[in-house]
Specification:
This protein is of the alpha/beta class and 335 residues long. It has 2 domains: 129 residues, Rossmann fold (3-Layer(aba) Sandwich), CATH 3.40.50.720; 167 residues, Dihydrodipicolinate Reductase, domain 2, CATH 3.30.360.10. The protein is built from 11 helices and 14 strands. The protein has an 8-stranded mixed beta sheet, covered by helices on one side. Strands 3-2-1-4-5-6 form a 6-stranded parallel beta sheet, sandwiched between helices.
Length: 335
């Protein structure tokens, strides 16, 4: 079976994560990469909030100084768009127009309005388009979603999601520290959990939110309360207003009628189930990350000639609209 030829646009932290994951999975052939920074093409890119392990060499891979050049000249069937968020919209649309399948990093764009523009641009295309919301493919989150959807432990009564990080000073030219370019922590970091909550429960009937603003960096801490008409109460906490030694953390607590589901990355990568009957179980098959899962799913959709139904541009736009809603509520509070 011929492997899909993939081009990678952007070799910062997340781009190198995708590169290492492609090599480790062996499900596609990396034929081209693009980045405007010679340091990145030379393999000397900055670190991020997660360790990138594996083969990130570019031996035998064609290199380009821009995504546009790669789209015009490279021998690729699909591209992974891993550039800064403010460049997503134009590059994602250009890739679809160039006839490529697209896996675009999250968040899809800077706002719901930009997301809707992308949805309109790709409508009618026979190319696969997917957004890399990796939590949908993270083992512990996938297992929790399975339990929730199947009603294994009854209905969800309330839930809490958290994601905190040191300030991402590693970003290229400090783009994450400029709200105009990244949307701030409320978009770049918090959106992971906003998307997952929307994936599990849909659009809430109401949102309350507070935040902490830090100059041009925008909202660096957001705490939101989502309420559903006939469903759970959900709180979401996310921010990166922490010094460099602070460890990255993600987790959740989902309280169902018959059990509580807990994941805490600072403990381990397993999902724990605290059953109302007194049993406690640590599901130890949750090692790994979501990058391999999302890539495998994307490549399988291409192979089958099917449009992705998970991580769609539409669902990603819905997450952007929820962040826009939070921003509006916070702005009403004068923050």
């Amino acid at each position: 079976m011929t492997k899909t030829k993939v081009g990678l646009i952007g070799l910062g932290f997340i781009g190198r994560m995708h590169l290492a994951t492609l090599r480790r999975g062996g499900l596609a052939e990396l034929t081209a990469v693009a980045d405007k920074e010679p340091e990145n093409l030379a393999g000397r890119g900055a670190a991020g909030n997660l360790e990138v392990s594996g083969d990130t060499s570019l031996d035998g891979v064609a290199t380009y100084a821009s995504g546009e050049a790669l789209l015009a000249e490279a021998d690729v069937d699909a591209v992974i768009v891993a550039v800064p968020t403010y460049l997503h919209k134009d590059l994602a649309i250009a890739a679809i127009k160039a006839g490529k399948h697209v896996l675009c990093e999250k968040p899809l764009a800077l706002s719901g309005e930009e997301g809707r523009a992308i949805c309109e641009a790709i409508a009618g295309s026979d190319r696969a388009f997917m957004v890399g919301h990796c939590l949908r493919f993270w083992p512990a989150y996938m297992k929790a979603a399975e339990f929730v959807r199947q009603g294994t432990y009854g209905a969800v009564r309330h839930a809490h999601f958290i994601r905190t990080s040191p300030k991402p000073a590693w970003a290229w030219q400090g783009w994450l520290m400029d709200e105009r370019l990244s949307g701030g922590a409320i978009l770049d970091l918090h959106v992971h959990d906003v998307d997952f909550v929307n994936y599990l429960f849909g659009r809430p009937k109401s949102i309350e939110a507070v935040g902490v603003r830090n100059g041009k960096e925008g909202i660096e801490q957001a705490n939101a309360l989502y309420q559903y008409a006939d469903g759970p109460v959900v709180t979401i906490e996310g921010g990166w207003g922490h010094p460099a030694p602070y460890p990255f953390r993600m987790g959740f607590r989902i309280v169902c009628e018959k059990a509580t589901l807990v994941f805490e990355s600072s403990v381990d990568m397993n999902l724990r189930v605290y059953d109302a009957n007194g049993a406690t179980e640590a599901l130890d098959n949750c090692e790994g990350d979501g990058y391999a899962g999302e890539q495998a799913y994307f490549l399988d959709c291409i192979a089958r000639g099917e449009a992705p139904t998970n991580g769609t541009a539409q669902s990603s736009t819905e997450a952007l609209e929820l962040v826009d809603w939070e921003r509006a509520v916070i702005a009403e509070r004068g923050i």
